[in-house]
Amino acid sequence: DVKVTQSSRYLVKRTGEKVFLECVQDMDHENMFWYRQDPGLGLRLIYFSYDVKMKEKGDIPEGYSVSREKKERFSLILESASTNQTSMYLCASSSIGRDIQYKAFFGQGTRLTVV
Amino acid sequence: GEDVEQSLFLSVREGDSSVINCTYTDSSSTYLYWYKQEPGAGLQLLTYIFSNMDMKQDQRLTVLLNKKDKHLSLRIADTQTGDSAIYFCAESSTGGYNKLIFGAGTRLAVHP
Question: Are B51 and B38 within 8 A, CB to CB?
């Protein structure tokens, strides 16, 4: 069974802290993504990676960075957390290819609260 | 740019059919998807349709695609309380990175 695992379900951090959100997939997928989900706004893409050590900015990269040192792991970093980064963060992965391989598989989400 | 729009809320009676609608702007979209998110959970792929198809049926789910109007719908027959969730429409275009563009999500409430 395919699996995308996010390291935490819930996190509470203080303003100004450096925050790491970790995501691991076991499907040998090339592509990995970080989204944030806010009510009424749907999912917005923060960053994505199509290969080890490669990254591309999504629609809302400001205040975030990412790291992909290994194919199975994609980390989202909040350099200095702020209250407007309180949100649900979702990691996803997909393979490059035709047909159903374009499907993205999602982790269970990390609800981050910055106080 | 690319945009996906859907209504935010739908309420139906148990046993009725639900129809969730979505419009998109990217005419190069190859695949269109419906994802389901139950409370407190991540997104689960429900179904998808390739852009050269008009309809796809999968048990209680029927997806209709009108390419001319860039309109996608998801019909759930015999809606049950377990279908209560947020449903996201998403599109992806050709290219290797499968960048998905999501709508805001439609919250489906099923009442007795």
Answer: no
